[in-house]
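Researcher: I'd like a candidate sequence for this fold, 246 residues long. If you have to choose between options at a position, lean toward the conservative one.
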């Protein structure tokens, strides 16, 4: 018997698939409310958990689990909207008729967004490789045709390839700064953006009579609210090009 076979016999037997990780109760934070727990072990996907407060949770942070960084990036993009009321993840499955399989199947939407006017939008989140497949395109058509008014007002496809690492990092920083309130700095930077000349973010900050760090954070919040424009696909910093959004 070869040395490799000896070594192979000494190895422990492969373990069964482990259950999804569970987050223990956190004081002052609402528990996870999704239908499915995506925190299973994976060699490729990077699972994400976060505590997020929205008007739907009455401003109380709640635990959210995301299937991967792309899905988390989509959520952060949605959360910066001033029209957002609530966010739900890993929704209960809906039934749909699959034309290819000729049978009834089920699908769980990744996210559902509720706006302040009550409008609800379900999000189908996938990468570009998956979305390019004809069978997936057919499946999306079948799923969207089965979305009823009691579940969502409409449904949308979101491609995670649009959420590059730099884009996600910018969204994370913007979200962090949006949690800090500094109305004085926001008003000062916005006034400078509307009344002074500048090209780079450092130029805009130089036009403000305030600490640089406060102006930078205010500018990030204004970018997040679409008051200012910046290239989110490049890491936003002092040398970044900024402009007033049209």
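Model: Candidate sequence:
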């Amino acid at each position: 018997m070869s040395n490799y076979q000896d070594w192979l016999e000494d190895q422990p037997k492969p373990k069964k698939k482990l259950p999804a990780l569970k987050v223990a109760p956190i004081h002052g934070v609402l528990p996870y409310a999704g239908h499915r727990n995506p925190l299973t072990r994976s060699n490729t996907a990077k699972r994400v958990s976060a505590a997020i407060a929205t008007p739907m949770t009455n401003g109380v942070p709640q635990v959210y689990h995301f299937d991967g960084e792309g899905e988390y990036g989509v959520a952060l993009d949605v959360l910066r909207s001033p029209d957002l009321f609530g966010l739900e993840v890993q929704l209960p499955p809906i039934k749909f008729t699959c034309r290819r399989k000729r049978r009834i199947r089920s699908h769980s939407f990744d996210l559902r967004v509720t706006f302040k006017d009550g409008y609800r939008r379900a999000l189908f989140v996938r990468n570009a490789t998956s979305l390019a497949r004809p069978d997936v395109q057919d499946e999306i058509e079948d799923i969207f045709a089965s979305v009823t008014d009691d579940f969502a007002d409409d449904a949308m496809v979101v491609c995670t390839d649009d959420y590059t690492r730099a884009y996600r990092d910018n969204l994370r920083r913007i979200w962090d700064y949006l949690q800090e309130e500094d109305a004085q700095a926001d008003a000062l930077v916005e006034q400078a953006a509307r009344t002074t000349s500048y090209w780079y973010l450092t130029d805009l900050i130089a036009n403000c009579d305030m600490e640089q760090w406060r102006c930078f954070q205010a500018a990030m919040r204004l970018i997040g609210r679409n008051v200012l424009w910046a290239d989110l696909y490049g890491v936003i910093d002092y040398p970044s090009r900024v402009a007033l959004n049209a």
